[in-house]
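Re: [help] complex structure
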Amino acid sequence: MSSTPAQSLSPLRAAWQRLMRQRLNAWAFWFLVVLVVLCGIGPELSPYDQSEQNLELKATNPSIAHWLGTDPLGRDMLTRILHGGRVSLEVGLLATAVASIMGVFYGMISGLAGGRIDSAMMRIVDILYAFPFINFVILLMVIVGREFWLIFVAIGAVEWLTMARVVRGQVLALKNLEFIIAARASGAGFWHIVWKHLLPNVTGPVIIYASLTVPGVMLLEAALSFLGLGIQPPDASWGVLIREGANSMETYPWLLLYPGVFFSATLLALNLLGDGLRDAFDPKSMSQQ
Amino acid sequence: MIRFLVSRIIQGLVVIFAVITITFTLSKLVPGGAVRNERNVTEEARKAQEEYYGLNKPWLVQLGLQLKHYATLDLPDSYHYKGRGVDEIIASGFPVSAAVGVAALLIALAIGVPLGALAALRPNTLEDRASTFAATLGICTPSMVLGPLIAMLFGLKLRWFNVAGWFDSSDWVLPALTLGIIYSAYIARLTRGSLRETLAQEFIRTARAKGSSETSVVFLHAMKLASLPVLNYLGPAAAGLLTGSFIVETIFQLPGLGQFFIAAATNGDHQLTIAISTFYAALIVGFNLLVDILQAVLNPRIRLQA
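Output below.
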């Protein structure tokens, strides 16, 4: 299994080692770690509150007191960006978790059931693929409005389709392999097989796909907030900050630039890590490239 | 082929009617209705309006009426734009979205395919790295950041185009550029991946062995198969582009379908919300079908299955 001979590594450990051997992936990983820590504790450490206004100050350039300057209401940009990053990352991770759980369940059931049930369930997924989900999400936002947590549920409920397909494909490939048949023959129960044999083997694809879902979800959240339908000011997410920045870009271009750079860098790191994970879990695809 | 078409068309109709039902249900949940939101309306006038739109009937009857409207293609009037059918409003917004979308698609293909092909033909060279890096950068630049930057550069600084609005005949350029650059990044990545995979296949070796020139190998043999994943991606992407990205229409203040939809959703103009969602669904279904047929034409190994 593992590419390193003579020692036994669990598939996850081996994949991890392959992942971090690529310098770019390691950078992306540590960038995200630093970002998560900064967004986690930064707003608490900052002497300013993210919504604290200082109308005398207005918009200023970066200074010692305000490392990334202030916005037209005199709010500290760095604090707002870190706070917004926290919100965006939370949305990204939670919606991905919702989508992954839904997708894994659905795909697993479909793949295990097989036959008619499987084809009916996959037909439903096909049909759902053709839905104009962005419209539903916008309508949902209008309905539930300011409920922060519902945003994840709405977004997560949209993003599970591909996950379901990926898991189902994996389960279909696995379920007739010898080791599953052997387990069944030796009297393993249904849940034992699911839990001990199937789940560990779908972990790889699920992790890969989840890591590629996070940036997608963050983009969707930012888009909704940008349209004024997601996170509501004075609360901030990166989408809100980019919207505010775009509105005042003529006079204060940095208000668009700073959150934009943070957001893009995060998306870049997440994408690199997702690609890296795909290569790491599937050494074949790496040797091809 | 005919079985395939019939089954797909039935599936498409299921999608469209499901979308009507879901949007109808969702829009019933929106707090405040179209008529209730209006001020200075007497009780009687409100009743008369509700009567006119059939809003006083039970839900199921209303849903039935909706479905009947769409089944008979006799589309209802908008709540907000009094006396205008929703089809008229779609007909006024769609050309704007479509103009931007088609231009963006062409830009995306014109940048993405050569960039990806270049990278695939010279693997692990500087050209490959540079184009892959550019594509990755493009994927990671959200349209709400790129759009304002493009507007600032070409609109405010260079003054080549209007920053926003839909007045001059050149107003499609900046929004199309924004969308085109972003989609080109995805296309470049897909092209690179699939062209490299195709070039490693046996039939390419056969083509080389029988003495085909390198150009003919790449462009006639490999590209045909390599374009499949790109096509697969273009189906949903094209529908998204044509219906106009909500973001880009907001940035450049274009009177496209996306803007109408957001306004309708927030105003409680449910007839328009349902109509635009249904229109999107029909477009997506149509494009997916088109892509499936094209794929079968390009790859003899793919058979259309009902």
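The CA atoms of residues 148 and 251 of chain B lie 7 Å apart.
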